[in-house]
Fold:
Amino acid sequence: MDDRERRWMQLMQAALAGDRPSYERLLREIAPAIRSVVERRLRQMGAPTAESETWCRKPCWRSI
Structure:
């Protein structure tokens, strides 16, 4: 486990204990990593680049 994963684990533990700022920080930190995985998978599936960028860049949750 690398430093980033440890930090995310600590943030998730704090978030599960009710620490809202930790939850918000976790979402901000993991969002780019998740977007990257989804974009790569959409490209592998043959989705047009513009479509994959639309799906991955459009916020799906309210602003934090």
